Amino acid sequence: MTAVGIDAIEIRTGKLELDLAETFAPAKGEEPEKYTKGLGLHSSSFPDAYEDIVTMGANAAHRLMERKGLTPADIGRIDVATESAFDNSKPVSTYIAGCLEQVYDGDFHHANKGERKFACVAGTQSIDDAYNWIRAGRHRGRAALVVATDTALYARGDPGEATQGAGAVAMLITEDPDLVALSTEQGYGSADETDFLKPNQQFPSVDGKRSVQVYLARMREAVRDYESVAGEIPPDEFVLLPFHTPFPGMVRKAAALAYRHMIRDTAVEEELAPDIGRQPRPEAFDTDEEYVDAMGEYTDELVETDRYLDWYEATVDPTLSISREVGNWYTGSVHVARASGLKHALESGMDLTGETLGVASYGSGAQAEVHAETVQPGWEAEIEALNVDEQLEARYSISYEEYKHIHDVHNHDKDTDAEAEAFTPPEAEFVFDGWGRMGERKYRYVE
Ligand code: HMG
Predict the structure, then answer these.
(1) d(C-alpha 153, C-alpha 410), whole Å
(2) 244 catalytic residue (yes or no)
(3) How many angstroms separate the CA atoms of 119 and 330, rounded?
(4) Read out DSSP for 399-434?
(5) Which of 40, 107, 222, 312 is the most exposed place for a label (fewest CB within 10 A)?
């Protein structure tokens, strides 16, 4: 069977940066360590006044198409994953296609366009849609463009404000991909939860502490479901383990549980036993509570062992480098984590061809999905082509007053127009260009 997967990837960050430790924490009367140590975040990306989910998505897709020498005729579907849509009928993919048609000969009239929501899971589902479309032989030799784009803003004063971010990831899904091939095996953990939602409102209603527990519970289910088709996951199965990353501290918690699960009944558990004992088994306890407490104590000791720290340092920490600088991108976040891990591997001179990644997506509401990906021979050139470091370096660092201004500019309940004060000059990119006669957002390309 021919491999199907991600052929190319582009990352587009919002052009503004809010330093969380130096700027945000003091303004909020908080300790910088809550961000740098607790949440694991250095800064958040924000969209400048002329940026939004469409411009960031279209700019990422444009660079990807240019780099791969594609024209609209080469693309048979455009699927957008977002939790920040501003239109309840017209999909964001149509706006992005409209942007791209401004700069290419030809159009996307032949392309199937859609939109999904469910944070990272939506981006992964869009990749799955493309995978199934190609596998079914319906693609007529064309590739699928998947764009995950969000402005992850919270109401000012909400605890989630600490984890904001904005950016887009564009991915090309093809046969014989250059980057990673997808496994057929998948695992799901899905339940009707009310931990984070936006019932016809721009900013989320969040039960933050519970959302963390829901993330871990759904992830646990997804891993078990994955193992029911793929077999038990040995501790050294995955060379990298990218998770949905609302903030790195969340992944730190998930990784500890994942490792504990993977080493259970293995030689690693036995090797660690003289120092920290074996994992508690439920049958040894009178109540669930006692068992859970004992597991908590075991996990606290496990994450202090060299064995765990080495695994975490190699497999999980590299996936967090970009997230630390940009915050949560909702739908794009696991895709940023994958790119971050591969970028680290490239910079460290690792040969990953043929190695396996474990990819763990998540969306509040809530669903987790786990699958494997095999790194393809063209991965180095693809990752080498990313310009994310240059983009991060070029961001304009905003003061707290400027942050409030830009937060208001992107607040749908406040009147904003295309003339709102921007902090950077647009250059060779799509920009927001005001409102049309039916209330639609309009865009133009600035040379
Ligand atoms: P909070 O009240 O701002 O922060 O809420 P906190 O007081 O819990 O502190 C955060 C961490 O920093 C804690 O670590 C503190 O101990 C530590 P933990 O105990 O959890 O390991 N800390 C410090 N460490 C060192 N030195 C210090 C210090 N001070 C504190 N001085 C919360 C944090 C995440 C709840 C909040 O930001 C929030 O509500 N965020 C939004 C919801 C969220 O991100 N949930 C994550 C799971 S759900 C998900 O991922 C889906 C999502 O992407 C939505 C979607 O797209 O579907 C969010």
Answers:
(1) 9
(2) yes
(3) 5
(4) PHHHHHHHHHHT-TTS---TTS--SS---SEEEEEE
(5) 107
Residues 295, 13: contact at Cβ < 8 Å?
no
pLDDT digits (tens, 9 = 90+) for 138-161: 999 999 999 999 999 999 999 999
What's the 39 CA to ligand 1 centre distance in angstroms? 6
Assess whether 110 carries a catalytic annotation.
Answer: no
> CB of 154 within 8 A of CB of 206?
yes
- Give the alpha-carbon dihedral of 83, 89, 92, 94, to 10 degrees: 160
Would you say 424 and 15 are in contact if contact means Cβ atoms under 8 Å apart? yes
- Comparing CA positions, the residue from 293, 299, 255 lying closest to residue 277 is 299
**Strands (DSSP E) along 228-279, which ranges?**
none
Which pLDDT tens digit goes with each residue over 248-278?
999 999 999 999 999 999 999 999 999 999 9
Which of 150, 163, 207 has the most ligand 1 atoms within 8 A of CB, as the residue to mutate? 163
**Ligand 1 centre distance from Cα of residue 407 (Å):** 20
Q: How far is the CA of 329 from the centre of ligand 1 (A)?
A: 15
Is the CB of 157 within 6 Å of ligand 1?
no
The verdict on the CB of residue 43 being under 6 Å from ligand 1 is no
Sign of CA dihedral 134, 136, 137, 139: negative
Alpha carbon distance 340, 342 (integer Å)? 6
Give, as one character, the DSSP assignment of residue 91.
-
In angstroms, the CA 336 to CA 242 distance is 9
